[in-house]
UniProtKB/TrEMBL annotation:
Pfam families: Metallophos (PF00149). This is Exonuclease SbcCD subunit D. It comes from Thermoproteota archaeon. The keyword Isomerase does not apply. InterPro entries: Calcineurin-like_PHP (IPR004843), DNA_Repair-Maintenance_Comp (IPR050535), Metallo-depent_PP-like (IPR029052), Mre11_N (IPR041796).
Amino acid sequence: MKFAHMADIHLGATSEPRLRELEMETFRKAFEECLEEDVDFVVIAGDLFHVNIPDLSVVKEATKVMMRFVETGRRIYVVYGSHDFSPNATSMVDILEEAGVIVRVGKPSTVNGMLRPEVVVDRRSGAILTGISGRKLSLEKESFKHLDREYLASFKGFKIFLFHSALDDVRKSGERFEGIASTDLPEGFDYYAGGHLHRRIEYLREKKIVYPGPLFTGWGIDLENTVKGERRGFYIVEDGAPRFLDMTAFEGVYEEVDATGLSAFTLNERLRALASRMDVRGKVVVMRVFGELSSGKTSEVEFASLREEIMKRGAIYLHLNRSQLRSREFEGQAVVSDDVQKIEEETFREFSKSRKFEEGRLNTEAVALSKSLLQQLKVPKMDGETEGDYEARVRDAAIDVLGIKDLLRG
């Protein structure tokens, strides 16, 4: 038996045209590799798309890729991730399953108060697949508490469990996430196909737990880590043994510029000199500019000219991280981090500390609700969608996140 394990593909995550091309090209090459390797099936452990209803042009191209694979008589098995799951609306995952492109495993049912995720048998290989989908705010953790483990143990054969949750056992120092323990996963499976953690992990102890990390990274700290040398791809699993296939789509250049004690004028000179000597042709450039200027404002730093020069020299893309650059005149709460999502979370946390909310739950849930609400506000307008329909969709999603639908009805 031979299958492919992908996760955290996040199609549609980047709006930069060249990176979007590379994202889809990587997705296409991954499935071509699957056919070349003659795998029996593919599993995707969550976050096939970056949002539950992505840009339809992205969906169109992705569907072409997956259909070429499915038309050979093979299947693609998925679970929801925290990004492409929606508790109150249809997800593109549901639409693609209805169209016969993918198969979602682990659909939940309850018997005698216990959770029984649907079990699927792959017709080509005989593999037994089930799992638990990811949910926003890591709410899937509750599902593991009510899992009917005896029911799952009753199935005999090569068994694969898909899940989209972080694993406490592999938490690094400084990492902050809501995760599960390896003991929360049901016993007796031959392979545990993980998703959600954006790094490659082979936790091969009592249970064979594997995370491939993202297939492609075109945004945030993941892009930075790729440029620094972290490899991206997916696993081919043959007779239970995982083998990583490197699909890294680009090489990169990473530069840090400490502006501490420099004037805005001097920093501009330093950035121009740096751009003139960097070898950027055919590469993605990530530049982190940080520190406190001795004089001048951050708005006086000519980042637009820097971007123009680097792109003129043949770079694929320039990602500028200037979240830690500040001028001496600025007063306020600085959140120090390279991770956009962490910056957002820390900003919400600092704000919530300075407020006492009348509604009691907000004193404990303000950060989580704010993050979930911001995610909904980032959902792009779909092709052909009117402004009114778009606003209504975002408004309804925000109302559901806040849990005030009944209040508004009253």
